[in-house]
Design goal:
The chain is 39% helix and 17% strand. By secondary structure, the protein is of the alpha/beta class. Helix 6 links the parallel strand 5 (119-125) and strand 6. Helix 1 crosses helix 8. The protein is globular. The protein starts with a strand and ends in a 10-residue tail after the last helix. The model has no long low-confidence stretch (mean pLDDT 97). Nicotinamide-adenine-dinucleotide (NAD) binds at residues 7-8, 10-14, 32-37, 59-61, 81-85, 100, 104, 123, 125, 178, 181.
């Protein structure tokens, strides 16, 4: 498999995956509606790889653009990153989330079937495990109990993919459940560029470091964990990108549906992450303890055995590397992509 269509390829995880794919000799075609990313990402990809991927400005819900893409390119495999992902927003506008993420995935899959493209990789999330009864979780843990529409779109799409596979055995599908991707490309040219006030931990910390926010609010220090803060499995976005290459190779063996958790297997607390960023910064980062955030689970990290044994996936970066690269990106691009000096 050489020709990969990456939907949402100018977004955070998509762009890092595109770089990884190009570096390994794949031909990449991107479709993105730029609802949460910028075209300048293509320049950055080109600077890093010396290759400018073919780009279609378009929406995965638009059959015409998908027909055009599949007619003009011989696609072997589709990686579907395109989707809305803000948890809080999904609670406010659930129908937009269901329409964009679920309907979008259905249209994309129908078009793939029509054009006889049968390899599909889906960006799912550890959120499908809800509040796990124990940690580390493995892929056999029950899914469900999602606490917001965003998470529910992931759960529903997983079910749709399983039904599709039963009905059409031509399909080979990898469902990848990401844990907490953070970090940035080591070049400092690509990274996470959230709109408005970041909801997630790492971008919030780097905005404090760069002076855009006053201090980090730590959402609760009274959880039943060694330091009282929640535990997550943070994974460097470049490791995560590599996980998609492992998945492509797996699909070549025509396995039907496969599911992998992608994480490091190591749980880190909010304080662990903060301290890693302080190491990168060389000074303390201001924080205060705030009330718990609704919907947060105490601990969630993964077992890595299945991904390691079946697709050879091993994360090589630790949280110090993630903090160093995220900080390098933020300090070189204090306002994210484009506006260097405003
Ligand atoms: P992102 O918002 O940076 O990237 C998503 C991209 O998809 C954006 O460039 C956006 O413009 C595009 N897009 C959205 N809807 C589209 C549509 N209908 N048609 C075409 N393009 C569309 O998000 P990300 O962090 O890179 O996440 C990528 C995928 O991974 C998402 O599906 C997300 O839900 C999933 N995921 C992300 C995380 C995380 O922590 N970032 C964790 C688990 C799963
Ligand atoms: C969140 C989403 C999850 C989504 C993932 C990636 C919720 C409940 N979960 O995961 O569905 O897949 O993002 O987009 O929103 N924290 C602070 N202060 C902050 C921000 C975060 O203390 O300003 C803490 C949180 O309480 C949590 C940890 O840092 O303990 C990680 O938070 P975050 O980065 O938002 O990721 P998740 O909550 O794991």
């Amino acid at each position: 498999m050489k020709n990969i269509l990456v939907t949402g390829g100018t977004g955070y995880i998509g762009s890092h995956t595109v770089v990884e794919l190009i570096n390994l000799g794949y031909n990449v075609v991107i479709v993105d509606n730029l609802s949460n990313s910028k075209e300048i990402v293509l320049d950055r990809i080109e600077t890093i790889t010396n290759v400018r991927p073919k780009f279609y400005l378009g929406d995965i819900r638009d059959r015409e653009i998908l027909d055009k893409i599949f007619d003009e390119n011989k696609i072997d495999c589709v990686i579907n990153f395109a989707g809305l992902k803000a948890v809080g927003e999904s609670v406010r506008i659930p129908l937009e989330y269901y329409e964009n993420n679920i309907y979008g995935a259905v249209v994309l899959l129908e078009e793939m079937q029509k054009h006889k493209v049968y390899n599909f990789i889906f960006s799912s999330s550890a959120t499908v495990y809800g509040d796990p009864t124990s940690v580390p979780v493995d892929e056999t843990f029950p899914t469900g109990g999602t606490t917001n529409p965003y998470g529910t779109t992931k759960l529903f799409i997983e079910r749709i993919l399983m039904d599709l596979s039963k009905s059409d055995p031509n399909f080979n599908i990898a469902i990848l459940r990401y844990f907490n991707p953070i970090g940035a490309h080591p070049s400092g040219l690509m990274g996470e560029d959230p709109n408005g006030i970041p909801n997630n931990l790492a971008p919030y910390i780097t905005q404090v470091m760069v002076g855009k926010r006053e201090c980090l609010n730590i959402f609760g220090d009274d959880y039943d964990t060694p330091d009282g803060t929640c535990i997550r499995d943070y994974i460097h976005v470049c490791d995560l990108a590599y996980g998609h290459v492992c998945a492509i190779k797996k699909l070549e063996s025509k396995p039907g549906v496969v599911i992998y958790n992608l994480g490091t297997g190591k749980g880190s607390s909010v304080f662990d992450v903060l301290h890693a960023f302080e190491k990168a910064y060389g000074k303390p980062i201001p924080y205060k303890i705030a009330p718990r955030r609704e919907g947060d689970v105490t601990a969630n990290y993964t077992k890595v055995a299945k991904a390691m044994n079946e697709i050879g996936f091993i994360a090589k970066y630790n949280i110090d590397d993630m903090a160093r690269d995220a900080w390098n990106w933020q300090k070189n691009n204090p306002n994210g992509y484009e506006k260097k000096n405003d």
